[in-house]
Design goal:
Helicase, Ruva Protein, domain 3, alpha/beta, single chain, five-stranded parallel beta sheet, elongated, 431 residues, Rossmann fold
Length: 431
């Protein structure tokens, strides 16, 4: 019966995956998205209700149609109550089958489009992914709103500290993948086997120190979004492996001989000129073309000085809420100092400066005494203690982003776990 149904629907232009058991059905649903699930209710290996439950969990919008005999009508009614789209009674009529399949797939398509529309409206309306009213930021937000509902591969370019990861998160949150993982990997934080293992995973014994099986971030991002941050730092040998994964949508762990299917939207980010890196032979041209389907440019802060007051107030409120002092006021001369400074470290540098100033504002008012002295000068020379603190905070944040736990982050930083916890508390990075 299964083969006859598959043959009938394939002749009418449908791409068919047919399986023989509940476990095979669940595995297929895990591997790739479907427009329709057609299942018998009574199965030798279990119930079609198990397939329905798994489909609703893994692919919430996919319609499920049941086949049922006369003796299982009550079960079919129960399936409808649990969210099945329809049921067909055996023996099957071919035209009724095709009509039901057409209705179900169309209903699924309309549901997905409605979800995309709601997410796009939310992204354009109440949910402001970026802080700023400048024309450059408004244009960027418009581009994000248009691209988010698609699965288009996006390359985000911009100087360090401009907020490229924030743009990537906005693309994820505005997509149908928003309920799935957003996974970020810093391609410049690790080298060699460690970076390859981070991306692709490894089997036991794949290299020295690989004492257990580990899934890579490409698999962890299944059905979600993977951000390849600082993609320009990816070594050439890993560029070739990544290109193959993007082309075939399959990943093979280090030391393994089996490939696993993945469904991942890839977003890449870089502060380098990748086109020049291609010319210099440091980046593969074919990978560049695959990543740069659409390019989003995040403007540096010096090109949008009018956004600085908004950002200062935004970060001041955010830090104040975190440390239990939500009523923070910025003195007018302090705001002018913030506006005059060129911010070579962009939004990240501004955020750190505001955080420091708010923490040192003992009476709820941020005054000049709480600012790094560099804000009052144009020489660009930052006091050594402030420069060391800023570098230390940035190193900790990078280690945390690239690690699975704080213990692993401490090992990468070359300090004890207790020392890391002390620094997290001192710099107010506990959250």
């Amino acid at each position: 019966m299964r083969r006859l149904l598959a043959s009938e629907l394939a002749e009418r232009g449908y791409a068919i995956t047919d399986v023989a058991s509940v476990s095979e059905a669940c595995a297929a649903i895990d591997r790739r998205p479907f427009d329709l699930v057609l299942t018998d209710l009574a199965l030798a290996s279990g119930s079609g209700l198990d397939v329905l439950a798994h489909a609703r969990q893994e692919q919430p919008g996919v319609p499920v149609v049941f086949l049922t005999g006369r003796g299982t009508i009550d079960d079919a009614v129960r399936a409808m109550k649990l969210g099945a789209f329809d049921f067909l009674q055996k023996p099957l009529d071919a035209e009724r089958l095709v009509l039901t399949v057409e209705k179900a797939t169309e209903a699924g398509r309309l549901q997905r489009e409605a979800l995309l529309f709601r997410r796009a409206r939310a992204l354009q309306g109440q949910t402001r992914p970026m802080v700023g009213e400048s024309p450059a930021m408004r244009a960027l937000e418009d581009q994000i709103a248009k691209l988010a509902p698609t699965d288009t591969t996006v390359l985000i370019v911009g100087e360090s500290g401009t907020g490229k990861e924030l743009v990537a998160r906005a693309l994820h949150e505005g997509s149908t993948r928003a309920e799935r993982p957003f996974v970020a990997v810093d391609c410049g934080a690790l080298e060699g086997n460690l970076l390859a293992s981070e991306l692709f995973g490894h089997t036991r014994g794949a290299f020295t120190g690989a004492s257990e099986v580990r899934h890579g971030l490409l698999e962890e991002a299944h059905r979600g979004t993977l951000l390849l941050d600082e993609i320009g730092n990816l070594p050439l040998d890993l560029q070739a492996r990544l290109l193959r994964v993007l082309q075939e949508r399959r990943v093979r762990p280090l030391g393994g001989n089996q490939e696993r299917e993945i469904d991942v939207r890839v977003v890449a980010a870089t502060n380098r000129d990748l086109a020049r890196s291609v010319s210099d032979g440091r980046f593969r041209q074919d990978l560049y073309y695959r990543l740069a389907v659409v390019t989003l440019e995040v403007p540096p802060l010096r090109d949008r000085p009018g956004d600085v007051p908004l950002l200062v107030r935004h970060f001041a409120h955010k830090v104040g809420m975190r440390i239990g002092r939500p009523e923070i006021t910025i003195a007018p001369d302090v705001l002018r100092d913030f506006e005059r400074y060129p911010w070579p470290g962009n939004v990240r540098e501004l955020s750190n400066a505001v955080e420091r100033a708010v923490i040192l504002a003992t009476d709820g008012m941020v005054r000049r005494a709480a600012l790094p002295s560099v804000l009052g000068r144009t020489s660009g020379i930052e006091p050594l203690d402030a420069a060391v603190t800023r570098a230390e905070v940035e190193a900790i944040r990078r280690a945390l982003r690239a690690s699975r736990s704080r213990s692993e982050a401490a090992r990468r930083l070359g300090i004890s776990r207790r020392a890391l916890y002390d620094k997290l508390a001192r710099f107010h990075l506990d959250s």
